[in-house]
Amino acid sequence: MAASSCMLRSSFLFPNPNLHQQSNGVVSFSPIKATYDAISQSPQLQKHRRPADENIRQEARRDISSHNLSARYVPFNADSNSSEWYSLDEIIYRSQSGGLLDVQHDMDALKKFDGQYWRSLFDSRVGKTTWPYGSGVWSKKEWVLPEIDSDDIVSAFEGNSNLFWAERFGKQFLGMNDLWVKHCGISHTGSFKDLGMTVLVSQVNRLRKMHKPVVGVGCASTGDTSAALSAYCASAGIPSIVFLPANKISMAQLVQPIANGAFVLSIDTDFDGCMQLIREVTAELPIYLANSLNSLRLEGQKTAAIEILQQFEWEVPEWVIVPGGNLGNIYAFYKGFQMCKELGLVDRIPRLVCAQAANANPLYLHYKSGWKDFKPIRANTTFASAIQIGDPVSIDRAVFALKNSNGIVEEATEEELMDAMAQADSTGMFICPHTGVALTALCKLRKTGVIGPTDRTVVVSTAHGLKFTDSKVDYHSKEIKNMECRFANPPVQVKADFGSVMDVLKKYLLSKNSRF
Ligand SMILES: Cc1ncc(COP(=O)(O)O)c(C=O)c1O
Ligand SMILES: N[C@@H](CCOP(=O)(O)O)C(=O)O
User: Fold this and answer.
1) pLDDT score, position 67
2) Average confidence (pLDDT) over 316-333
3) What atom in ligand 1 is closest to the CA of residue 354?
4) Three-class SS of residue 85?
5) Gap between the Cα atoms of 259 and 190, Å rounded
6) Which positions carry N6-(pyridoxal phosphate)lysine (predicted)?
7) Residue 328: closest CA among 301, 366, 363
8) CA 132 to CA 324: how far, in whole Å?
9) In the predicted model, is pLDDT for residue 28 greater than 50?
């Protein structure tokens, strides 16, 4: 069997330190590693159709791979001489000093493989059904949770989301030809939270098998984290508990944890109040905290950044625009891009833009003050309800990401974000109001010339528009106080007779084509 075909099949399953890159870029085996060759050529690893009575999880159990990759918690942005670290199998969310934690990978071990190796490995797994690599998150398992047993993974084959070329929106509204929307919301539970939740719930599954004291998993939520948590927990048979601010999330979001069997508390406060409560409760009860304060989540979310590079065949876009609320995701994107740079998959990272609703803009105010001392605010009601957050837990992570990516923070008023959403929808998308916030940031940066007409730009769409139909209905019915709703497209009421229907149709067609 040719070494190269053998390599492809084997590296699909796991990285092997005995692989070497030749000067022509081809990765091959070291001939002296006879044991490894024997394993990789064994019939068990050959990718035949599995026996009829075996499922993909059982098939993955026959993967006898081993490697020396590892990861652990360290204090976020710690001093280089800090010796504080924790195993990922510990239940811990904060450092000794009360600061955030970060998952630190053994970069020296990862660097034993070059960028070409990682690119080929990740590319080889896209679109497959092999457990767990069919997931866009777990196709990067070595960079996410290298030590977890594939059998412990709880996955809905999330990720691998559409990178949509926004041809008409870019051309018509912005004069841009290389604008892309990363549809992270076209996902199992309809938001990017699935990317992080598969990682967190998988680790909980492992902890429970290790008899660690985890009776359930809990979160505070503006609607998307709770949906993802309850779905992944339901899939694994783990109890989930969600704290929701009463009357502040959409009906579609509320029904998701209810349907998935979560224990749902509707609390008469805002998200920041719910967050405070869940932090207190998880310090007292054996409930594992699932918000992005828990850095495990960000390990999954960072794969969206890697995926963008992969979809551009490892060419780096100029700009990536992300709507921000609790501010974990902007850091996750930074981390994904930065790891790709450090491990030689690309040679630079994009500039990041974090977009906030003007009604919930603590990061924007902080940025505008020249990063002087941060002040939490009381967030006002916004149509971008999932980012109605005044005291983001990941503020330090966001500032770090923006400073290290030559980043920018922008804001969007209610009218701006709703208009942007309606305009995008009119070009064939069906986006959420948070993506409207990100598109508004793009429009502003285009107008001032900061983003150029040919700059390759990616707007991250964070949730499915179908979760936010109420706000779309209000807009298109022109039922929003103090809002012009310039792009509203209300239905036309017409009598049920041929003449009336013909009249309105002729009028419509004339407005579209003067030659009619
Ligand atoms: C739809 C949607 N978009 C954007 C965000 C912001 O993400 P982050 O909290 O990581 O900043 C959230 C949640 O906060 C969300 O649910
Ligand atoms: N939008 C989020 C808010 C909580 O964010 P998290 O990433 O810290 O869980 C939600 O949907 O709840």
Assistant:
1) 79
2) 98
3) 11
4) coil
5) 15
6) 193
7) 301
8) 29
9) no
Question: 409 phi and psi, to 5 degrees?
Answer: -120, 135
Tokens of 108: 């020296």
Ligand nearest to the CA of 270: 2
Put residue 183 in one of left, alpha, beta given phi > 0 → left and psi -120 to 50 → alpha: beta
> What number is the ipTM of this complex?
0.99
Closest to 119 in 3D by CA, of 309, 325, 360: 309
Q: Indicate the helix (H) or strand (E) that contains 219.
A: strand 216-220
Any idea how long the chain is?
A: 516
Write the CB contacts of 500 (distance below 8 Å, at least 6 apart in sequence).
494
The per-residue pLDDT for range 223-247, each reduced to its tens digit, is 999 999 999 999 999 999 999 999 9
Q: For the chain, how many helices (H) and strands (E)?
A: 20, 15
Q: Which of 11-15, 152-156, 457-461 has the lowest mean pLDDT?
A: 11-15
Residue 59 binned pLDDT confidence (cut-offs 50, 70, 90): confident
* 208, pLDDT greater than 90: yes
What is the best residue among 292, 320, 417, 434 to mutate for testing ligand 1's pocket, by most ligand atoms within 8 Å of CB?
434
What residue owns the CA closest to ligand 2's atom 4? 221
Q: What H or E segment, with its residue span, contains residue 209?
A: helix 193-209
Torsion of CA 64, 66, 72, 78, to 10 degrees: -150
**Beta strand pairing status for 216-220 and 240-245?**
parallel
How far apart, in Å, are the Cα atoms of 249 and each of 184, 221, 227, 363?
19, 9, 11, 22
Per-residue pLDDT of 480-509, as tens digits, reads 999 999 999 999 999 999 999 999 999 999
